[in-house]
Design brief:
Number of helices: 7
Number of domains: 2
Strand content: under 5%
Distance between the termini: 27 Å
Structural class: mainly alpha
């Protein structure tokens, strides 16, 4: 989002929130970021696809208030923890093509194109010929300065 990639950031955060345990300490911060990105794009956060039991607008506002006291370092740590959890889950569930794509998007948002490239390469290997995955791999490869697949 800091690089102007609001749609990509929003997609990554919605995906990460969907993967998160409901009691995760960092989840309120992610929900705040979802609300901020949605508002930036003129989207009603309530219309985003989220799992059952996702917070309503009041819960998002409460999460925003709670996250306001977190330092930038704490926020970054929360986000990195979420991405790490997704990466760990994928090691035990390596056939989850959507999970690999989510991880790739997350790494792109975190400005880690080498890791994004690896994640997208895993997704493309599972679903060859998918134009969106192929495009995402190409973008990550270009951002990392590498071409081709792993």
């Amino acid at each position: 989002m800091q690089q102007g990639e609001v749609k990509s950031a929003l997609a990554a955060w919605v995906d990460l929130a969907a993967e998160a345990p409901t009691d995760a300490d960092w989840l309120p911060l992610v929900r705040q970021r979802i609300a901020e990105a949605a508002n930036t794009l003129g989207i009603d956060p309530a219309t985003l696809n989220r799992r059952a039991g996702a917070p309503n607008e009041a819960a998002v506002a409460a999460a925003a208030k709670a996250a306001a006291t977190a330092s930038p370092e704490e926020r970054q740590a929360m986000i990195l923890a979420m991405v790490g959890k997704l990466a760990s889950r994928l090691e035990s569930q390596p056939d989850d093509v959507e999970g690999w794509a989510r991880l790739g998007r997350s790494y792109m948002v975190l400005n880690q194109p080498d890791k994004a490239r690896e994640a997208y390469a895993r997704a493309v290997k599972l679903k060859p010929g998918d134009p969106q995955l192929t495009q995402a791999l190409a973008e990550a490869s270009a951002a990392s300065g590498k071409t081709g697949t792993k």
